[in-house]
Amino acid sequence: MQEPTEHHRTEAQNQPHYFQWGLTAFCVIVSSVLVFYFLGWLPIIWRMIKKLLGILSPFIYGFVMAYLLMPVFNGLYRVLQPKLAQRMKRGTQIAKGLCSILSLLIGLAVVGVLLWMVLPQLIVSVFSLLESMDTYLDEISTWVASLLKDNPVIERNFLQLYEQFSTQVVDWVQNSALPQLVALMTGVVTTVSVLFDLLIGIIIALYILNSKDTFCAQAKKTLYSVFSIQRANRIIKRVAYIHRVFGGFITGKLIDSLIIGLLCFAGLRILMGFGLMTMDQSYALLISVIIGVTNIIPFFGPFIGAVPSTILIMVISPVQAVYFVLFILALQQFDGNILGPKILGNSTGLSSFWVMFAILVFGGVFGFVGMAVGVPLFAVLYTMATEAVNNLLRKRGLSVDTNAYRGPKRLDPETRAFVEIREEAPPVSAKERREAAQKARAQAQKENEKD
C-alpha cells in the first residue's frame, strides 16, 4: 500500500504543469510586446544612429585617412627612426611626428595631383558629351537607317522607337542629369560642413598616426584587464588578422585600380594613334576614370565600368565600341590573371562563389562601399565561423579536415571513424515495391524462426 505522501506526490506529478505553461505564455507575451515596441522605435533609433555617425564623421574620416596612409608611415618610419634615434635623445618621438606629417602631405599631394589632372578634363568631357548628345543620336539613326534600307518596314518601326527613346534620353539629360550634376559638383565643393569635417579629420589622422603605438598598448592593457590571458590573446590575434586582411586587400586594390586606370588611358591613346578610335582625349580620360574607379569592386567591377563606357563610345561609333569591348576584355584578363594576383595575392582566402556572395549581399545593403569592402569583411566572418566549427569538432574528437568528409562516408557513432556507406536506390515501380516487401517478410520470418 502506498504512503499518503507518495500518493499525493504521484497525483501532483500527473497533473498538468499549469504554472510552467502560464510562465511560458507570460514570457512569450512580454517578449512579443518588447519586440513590437522595438520595431516601433526602430526609425527613431536609426535616426539617432545617423545623427551620432554625423557627429563622429570627422573621426571616421581621420581613421580612414590614417588607415590608408599607414603603409606610407611605416615605410618612412623604418628609414628615419634609426637615424634620428642615434643622433637625438628624443629621436623616436621626433621620427613619429615627422613621419606622420610627411605621410599626410604625400597623401594630400597625390589626391591633389589626381584631382588637378582628372577633374577639369572630366568636367569638360561630361559637358561636351551632354551638349553633343543630339548630334551623336542623329549619327546613330543615320547608321541604323543605312543598315536597314533593304527592310523599309523594320526601318520605319525601329526609327519610331528610336526617336521616342532619343527624345526621352535628351529630355532626361537636359532636365534631370545635368542639373543634378551641377548641383552635386557645386555642393561637394562649397559645403562648409564637409570641408570642416575633412579638416578636422586631417588633424585626427595626424594624432592617430603619431600615437598608434600608444593606442594599441592601451587597447592591449584593457583586454588583459577584462578577459583572461588566453581569451585576450585570441582577441589580439583576431584583430591582427582583420588588420592584415583589410589592409592588404584595400591598399592592394587601390594600387591595382590605379594601374588599371592608367593602362586603360594608355591603351585608348594607342588605339586613337592607330586610327581605330576617333574619340576626344577628354573622353578617353573619362572612360579611364570610370574603369579605374569601378575596378575597386572585385569580380563585378570590370563589367560595371565597361557597360556605361561602352554606351558612351557606342554613341560616338558602334564599331569603335566593339574595339573597346575587345580591349577591355584583354585588359581585365591581364588584371585578373597577372596584375591582380601579383599585388593582392590570396589576401582573403575566399573562393569565387563566396566573393560573389559577399559582393551581392553587402552591396545590396551598403551600396558601393559595401561592394568595395564586402569581400574582406566577409572573409573575416567566414574565418571566424570556420574556427568556431573547428573548435566544436575538436571538442567532440572529430577531424577538422574538410577532405575527410568528402564522398559517401558516415561517422560510426561508436568508433567515431568514417565508414563507407552504399545507399541502395529505393524501389520505384509497383513490382519492385512488392518484391522488396516479400524480401522483408521473408527476412523477418527467418529471424523469428531462429529466435
From TrEMBL:
<feature type="transmembrane region" description="Helical">
    <location>
        <begin position="283"/>
        <end position="304"/>
    </location>
</feature>
<feature type="region of interest" description="Disordered">
    <location>
        <begin position="425"/>
        <end position="451"/>
    </location>
</feature>
<keyword id="KW-1133">Transmembrane helix</keyword>
<feature type="transmembrane region" description="Helical">
    <location>
        <begin position="52"/>
        <end position="77"/>
    </location>
</feature>
<feature type="transmembrane region" description="Helical">
    <location>
        <begin position="98"/>
        <end position="119"/>
    </location>
</feature>
<protein>
    <submittedName>
        <fullName>AI-2E family transporter</fullName>
    </submittedName>
</protein>
<feature type="transmembrane region" description="Helical">
    <location>
        <begin position="21"/>
        <end position="46"/>
    </location>
</feature>
<dbReference type="InterPro" id="IPR002549">
    <property type="entry name" value="AI-2E-like"/>
</dbReference>
<dbReference type="Pfam" id="PF01594">
    <property type="entry name" value="AI-2E_transport"/>
</dbReference>
<comment type="similarity">
    <text>Belongs to the autoinducer-2 exporter (AI-2E) (TC 2.A.86) family.</text>
</comment>
<keyword id="KW-0813">Transport</keyword>
<feature type="transmembrane region" description="Helical">
    <location>
        <begin position="181"/>
        <end position="209"/>
    </location>
</feature>
<dbReference type="GO" id="GO:0005886">
    <property type="term" value="C:plasma membrane"/>
</dbReference>
<keyword id="KW-0812">Transmembrane</keyword>
<dbReference type="GO" id="GO:0055085">
    <property type="term" value="P:transmembrane transport"/>
</dbReference>
<keyword id="KW-0472">Membrane</keyword>
<feature type="transmembrane region" description="Helical">
    <location>
        <begin position="352"/>
        <end position="385"/>
    </location>
</feature>
<keyword id="KW-1003">Cell membrane</keyword>
<feature type="transmembrane region" description="Helical">
    <location>
        <begin position="311"/>
        <end position="332"/>
    </location>
</feature>
<feature type="transmembrane region" description="Helical">
    <location>
        <begin position="254"/>
        <end position="277"/>
    </location>
</feature>
